[in-house]
């Protein structure tokens, strides 16, 4: 089943300026976890804003569960289906107490009070911030604030979560906790995730990776398919996960390694095998 679709869309911010999105088509299925990569300025955020009708394409059509984003009568429904989380947690906090912040968007939906209470509590629990519910958001860490923002979106029961570099301003621990929350929502709630990121280790864990350049999609595939093309990725001014880089460098140095390794454990096992001729599992026995 289709969650999001862009059909040959074109967008520029002003007349007579170059297209920021340039004849782009893509389709994201329900329940998928898709990472979007691309150098700065290639149009990732602009594309993300097309997925919940913050922006409308000048040419082509964007569909959310089959609904056109240009259909003004269904705008509220559409915005509720696709929740967005942006980079800067401070810009997303609107209330002075965590649970009020999580409740904010729901209050505008006209949900009955007792259902609202249940939805807010559940969203805070899912995002792992229930224990901070009575605290002031500005006293929380960046990662905790991002999880407050995610809880606010989850309380709306969206089918899809679009994260636009939502972990970029976080320390490694905050980043890991946000990612764990997002993966849980994807695994347990089957919420579709579109994650724009500069972190290749995050992209390595996605079901599918989309690479953009100059308003177009230039590569699309599983993380292994994408990150085994080290030279092509580098030519797009992007990195590959460290384990892929190490395997590539070893191969270049005359030590042949598998070229589809993207995860540190797999990389360690391949190096162990190369050095000893034994499977890593045998060494743990
Ligand atoms: N509000 C805006 N007005 C005019 N130009 C913009 C605006 N937002 C982004 N751009 C331009 O559009 C291009 C794509 O930007 P963006 O979608 O933010 O890229 P990315 O998220 O991949 O870094 C860039 O050249 C950027 O300068
Ligand atoms: Mg951006």
Describe the structure.
- The chain has 285 residues and is α/β, with parallel strands linked by helices.
- It folds into two domains: 2-240, Rossmann fold (3-Layer(aba) Sandwich), CATH 3.40.50.300; 241-285, no CATH class.
- It is 40% helix and 21% strand.
- It is built from twelve helices and ten strands.
- Strands 6-7-8-3-9-10 form a six-stranded mixed sheet, with helices on both faces. A four-stranded antiparallel sheet has the order 2-1-4-5, covered by helices on one side.
- α3 crosses α4 and α5 (142-154) runs parallel beside α6 (172-189).
- The relative contact order is 0.14.
- The model has no long low-confidence stretch (mean pLDDT 93).
Write the layout of secondary structure elements.
Blueprint: E1 2-11, E2 21-29, E3 33-38, H1 44-50, E4 59-64, E5 67-68, H2 75-81, E6 82-85, H3 98-107, H4 113-126, H5 142-154, E7 160-164, H6 172-189, E8 192-196, H7 200-203, E9 208-213, E10 216-221, H8 223-227, H9 230-235, H10 242-252, H11 264-276, H12 280-284
Parallel strand pairs: 3-8, 3-9, 6-7, 7-8
Antiparallel strand pairs: 1-2, 1-4, 4-5, 9-10
This protein binds adenosine-5'-diphosphate and magnesium ion.
């Amino acid at each position: 089943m289709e969650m999001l679709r862009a059909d040959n869309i074109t967008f520029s911010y002003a007349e007579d300026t170059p297209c920021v999105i340039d004849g782009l088509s893509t389709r994201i299925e329900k329940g998928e976890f898709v990472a979007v990569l691309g150098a700065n300025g290639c149009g990732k955020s602009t594309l993300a804003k097309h997925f919940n009708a913050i922006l409308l394409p000048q040419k082509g059509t964007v569909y959310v569960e089959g609904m056109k984003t240009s259909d003004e009568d269904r705008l509220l429904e559409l915005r509720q289906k696709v929740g967005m989380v942006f980079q800067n947690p401070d810009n997303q906090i609107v209330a002075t107490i965590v649970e009020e912040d999580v409740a904010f968007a729901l209050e505008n939906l006209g949900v009955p009070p007792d259902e609202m209470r249940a939805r807010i509590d559940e969203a805070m629990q899912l995002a792992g911030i229930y224990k901070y519910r009575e605290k002031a958001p500005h006293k929380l860490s960046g990662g905790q604030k991002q999880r407050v923002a995610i809880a606010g979106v989850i309380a709306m029961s969206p089918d899809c979560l679009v994260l636009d570099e939502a972990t970029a301003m976080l320390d490694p621990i905050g980043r890991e906790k946000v990612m764990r929350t997002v993966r849980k929502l994807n695994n347990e709630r089957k919420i579709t995730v579109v994650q724009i990121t500069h972190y290749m280790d995050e992209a390595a864990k996605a079901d599918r990776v989309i690479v953009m350049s100059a308003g177009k999609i230039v590569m699309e595939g599983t993380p292994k398919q994408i990150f085994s093309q080290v030279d092509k990725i580098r030519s797009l001014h992007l990195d590959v996960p460290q384990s892929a880089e190490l395997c590539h460098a070893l191969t270049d140095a005359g030590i042949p390694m598998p070229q589809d390794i993207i995860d540190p454990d797999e990389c360690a096992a391949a190096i162990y095998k190369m050095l000893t001729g034994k499977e890593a599992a045998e060494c743990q026995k």
